[in-house]
Amino acid sequence: MSNYSKLDRPEILSHIFYPLQLERTPLPENACDFDCTVEENIVLGCRFHAAGKEAPTIIFFHGNGETVADYDEVGAKYNQFGMNFLVTTYRGYGWSTGSPTVTSMLADTDIILQKAQVWLEEKGFTGSIFAMGRSLGSAAAIDLVQRHQKVLKGLIIESGFSDTLPLTENLGIDSEKAELTEEDCFGNSEKIAEIKLTTLILHGARDTIIPIQLAEKLQACSGARAKQFIMVPGADHNNIVEVGGDRYFDVIKSFVDKACGITKWSYKRRKYNRPDSQ
């Protein structure tokens, strides 16, 4: 694993992570909590929204100022569009224990994937698995997919970034004073260049926190033969789901279906041939 010690300095971490701690919240319909132990006495409080046993599962990494509970309504929408949605989190967020660092965030993704695979199999979920990251979570998703391309089916990025330094400046970090270079940071551009899996990138046209040029560079650097870039007109960094509406979920569902080799015709035929449709 790369050395992220410069990002893990307290004065830098205070700008990267904004952990909001809260008590475990009530479960929405069709959801259950997935508590993932990543280290002794360190448990990540994740939440799984179930659409169906054969549905594809998206393992999702949220933004730096969000929590698992923020995605309860969004999880229901993913279910409505026929996708399971596993919202993961970082140390110190929500009802998780520990304190977040860049090193632990990226290392924990391996454990999350490994344990999620076992848990899904035990529960009878057989669909393909995709990784998705939003904002800061794009770094977690890209890092995970780069190392596990034989296990995962595809990569989805929302409001993600290529270079780190433009983002650190927006977060209030003086990179020159902190002696930070791109080589000290996440390396999303270099990592996504090694990802061959089908990739979808979504970004708000009016995003001022992570300007769309950083997403366009991700698209340009992507090593995927099949890749798609969707700009959402009128959306900023934090309202892309609201502005996109059902179209946002339809795009993701179409991407997932195509990656899984499912066409609308084959879906209709399978549905028609079900015993309960006779």
Per-chain topology:
Layout: H1 10-16, E1 31-39, E2 42-49, E3 57-61, H2 72-80, E4 84-88, H3 102-122, E5 129-134, H4 137-147, E6 154-158, H5 165-170, H6 188-193, E7 198-204, H7 212-221, E8 227-232, H8 240-244, H9 246-259, H10 264-272
Parallel strand pairs: 3-4, 3-5, 5-6, 6-7, 7-8
Antiparallel strand pairs: 1-2, 2-4
Description:
Helix 7 (212-221) links the parallel strand 7 (198-204) and strand 8. The longest helix has 21 residues, at 102-122. The chain is 35% helix and 18% strand. The chain has a single domain (10-277), classed as Alpha/Beta hydrolase fold, catalytic domain (Rossmann fold, 3-Layer(aba) Sandwich). Mean pLDDT is 93; it is low at 266-278. It has 278 residues and is an alpha/beta fold.
Q: How many beta strands in the DSSP annotation?
A: 8
Contiguous helical run count = 10
**Beta-strand content:** 15-25%
SSE string, helices as H and strands as E = HEEEHEHEHEHHEHEHHH
Distance between the termini: 54 Å
CATH class: Alpha Beta
Evaluate the radius of gyration. 18 Å
Tag the structure with descriptive keywords.
278 residues, alpha/beta, Rossmann fold, 8-stranded mixed beta sheet, 10 helices, disordered C terminus
